Amino acid sequence: MAVDYKDYYKILGVEKSADEKEIKAAYRRLARKFHPDVNPNDKGAEDKFKDIGEAYEVLSDKTKREKYDQYGDQWKAFSAEGGASNAGRPAASGGYTYSDFGGGGLDDLFASIFGADHGGGFGGFRTSARQASPVHATDAEYPVEISLIEAYQGTARSFTVSMPEPCRRCQGSGSVVVNGRPCPMCGGSGKIKGGKSLFGGGTCPQCNGTGASTEPCGICHGTGHVERQRKISDVRIPAGVRDGQRVRLAGQAGGADLYLKVKIHPDSKVRREGNDLFTDFPLHYTVASLGGEATVDTFEGRKLLAIPPSTQSGQKFRLTGLGMPNVKGGARGSLFAEARIIVDKALSNEERELLTKLAKIRKVQTT
Predict the structure, then answer these.
(1) CATH, range 271-361
(2) Regarding the domain delimited by 140-164+229-265, which CATH topology (the fold level of the hierarchy) does it fall under?
(3) How far apart are CA 300 and CA 152, in angstroms?
(4) Is the separation of the CB atoms in 143 and 261 below 8 Å?
(5) Given its phi and psi angles, is residue 71 left (phi above 0), alpha (psi -120 to 50 degrees) or beta?
(6) CA 20 to 30 Å from 361, out of 9, 75, 95, 341?
(7) Are 8-123 and 271-361 equal in CATH topology?
(8) What is the per-residue pLDDT across 216-269, written as a single tens digit (0 to 9) for each?
(9) How remote is the C-alpha of 158 from its chain's centroid?
(10) Residue 100 and residue 91: Cα distance in Å, rounded?
């Protein structure tokens, strides 16, 4: 049987070159204008609304749009033979099912047209599908600041966090039943009449067949959740943790995971690169020249270094195993200590005479 050709671009009032954003904007504008709730008992508006939804279903799907552009009035027949996706196939009545518009059913269709501030429906009512959906816990992140030596040794923190939890009064639905007040859509019957209406008859989609009216919960103000303070004690931050790394606390965010995002304050004497640490140490010029010993400060206390003769300023000494621990296990990093040669600020007469003699031997010009 021949299939009536519909110009979907003309129905939405867009050019064939229209992009996804333009198509979506046209659909939202027209769906709002011709919605059956805006035009009650208007068969023409209802048919127009269905055509708009059918056009959007096809033009918003890349595969279907390509087939439509390629085969024109034969595109549906081609799809029925398996040449294209039949996810948007015609319903038994000849039109598209409302559940196909946007992939989320009637409630999501309302939300996409009228906005979340209307509670997913027209005129401010909230459909029962939205009422019955609890607030799902989502992962939360909390910043924690530590020093570099705490990152080296590992540390612990206790803190109080504020996080959303499902409202106990409405149990996360965002709405509560109003006793003694019938549902404004079905008049308290729990049923919608009319086989060709927007809802197609059957169970009332607003009250889900209960016949009761609802209103936003006064505790959570319709959000479905409330903020609560929670004390978390003695959370261990492992040795070797990196700046910006997250520490996972399973189930600590109202059933979801809480992540501690670590910020490591820079150290005035030690610099970190990966798992290696870098510092410097003072080295007297006589030790640098003649060789000897010097000490360097580490996170494990002072360590003694053997200094070879003729050590130059800036020369690095590697102390294996004194760098950062590997948070995943394995070998530790190294500490690189850089020699910073120092001279005396004040000299005795004997020291001055000796240095002057040395300068003459080395043929160094002095003042």
Answers:
(1) 2.60.260.20
(2) HSP40/DNAj peptide-binding domain (2.60.260)
(3) 10
(4) yes
(5) alpha
(6) 341
(7) no
(8) 888 888 888 888 888 888 999 999 999 999 988 887 766 678 889 999 999 999
(9) 25
(10) 10
Closest C-alpha to 279, from 85, 177, 148, 105: 148
CATH number at 8-123? 1.10.287.110
The tens digit of pLDDT for each residue in 91-146 reads 333 333 333 333 344 344 444 444 443 333 333 333 333 333 333 456 778 899 99
Record the tokens describing residue 96, joined without a space.
């598209």
- How far is it, in rounded angstroms, from Cα 219 to Cα 111? 23
Alpha carbons 26 and 78: distance in angstroms, whole number = 27
Degrees (nearest 5) of the Cα angle 162, 166, 171?
A: 155
CA-based nearest residue to 125, from 37, 227, 231:
37
Half-sphere exposure of residue 179: CA atoms within 13 angstroms, side-chain side? 0
In tens, the pLDDT along 36-58 reads: 767 778 888 888 888 888 888 88
